[in-house]
Amino acid sequence: MGKGAPIYGAPLYHIIATCMKKIFIAACVAALSFPAFAGNEETSKETPEYGITQTGFASKPKFGAYIIGSYKYSDLESANGGPGFGVRLVRAYVDGSIYNDFKYRLQVELNGTPHIKDFYLEWAKWKEFSVKMGQFKRAFTFENPYNPWDVGTGDYSQLVKKLAGMGDRNGEASMGGRDLGLQFQGDLFPIGSDKHRLVHYQLGVYNGNGINKTDNNKDKDLIGTIQFQPIKDLYIGAFGWKGNYSNGTTTVDRNRYSFGVKYEHDNWTFRSEYAHSYGGKLTDVNSLYADALYATVGIPVKPWFKLYLKYDNYRDDLKVENCSNTIWSIAPNFRLHKNLNFQFEYRYNDNKLTGKKYNELWFEYYVRF
Length: 369
Prior knowledge:
- This protein is mostly beta strands and 369 residues long.
- The chain has one domain (5-32, 63-368): Beta Barrel (Porin), CATH 2.40.160.10.
- The chain is built from four helices and 16 strands.
- The protein has helices spanning 10-33, 35-38, 148-151, 158-163, and strands spanning 62-74, 84-98, 102-109, 115-123, 130-137, 178-191, 196-206, 221-228, 234-246, 251-265, 268-278, 289-302, 305-315, 324-337, 340-351, 356-368.
């Protein structure tokens, strides 16, 4: 690992970051040119009058909530059989729109210490260009924005957890892959008989300090992605993240890139990503290089039965031999209703850093209303 580490180092990151910045600028310029004629596609039947007395042109707020409960067993000697019965998530949310152009969302997590998970306002008049401001998922990796219902297994990949802000390797507490910021995004260039969009882009500026708190330094994180959809539902994407993280006394770089592919069609799933991180930890500023790779396949057996297979590898320090943790998973999902799912998962863990191999059995139930 030590000899190979420089290959993944800062020089490669800066080359990719420079290329992505140029792509983002080109995409934004193209997006800004679309609204001039995009509005001709539809003609509004009624022109709203703006003002403090206007109470129409607003959707009825949609309220909802979901629960994910679990039972987990582990044969790891120090785990004492695993955590047993527990609750993974209890969340409630409301969303809606005003004038069809302004969309809002508020989501609260109720288990543990209740806190706000998402809040934002998005101006989304055009598919080609929209603006979102508030607290929401970082635009890094395909899997990070996924709802827990759609991941397919009982947890996100190590790539997302360690390198997208769900208990980050650098010492940041779990932020659920979210931050406070401003994001531009859009879908460009309709192609094919179905007119699917060839290009999707996102570019965001974030505090870099996580959720429900203001920034603690003068720096901002820049995160973005450019994705191509050559055929409907097949996405090939690149992601970049340039920033840092500070606890007030120690500051470490957080410079990352990722490449991936996802395909979700007719209930089939294939998703795979590689990510690399350059930047230390609060507890070890010299632990600079880490990477991760996962692959997930979802096979629809019946309309109510889908089988997921997953390979999940994370290497915490590329200068250290045998630094990987690998998890192999098989997870049958029994989706009896859109709002009801039962999930079983077998996980085989091979942690070379600790030298421990062990098995886990998870059961999770999902209910939404």
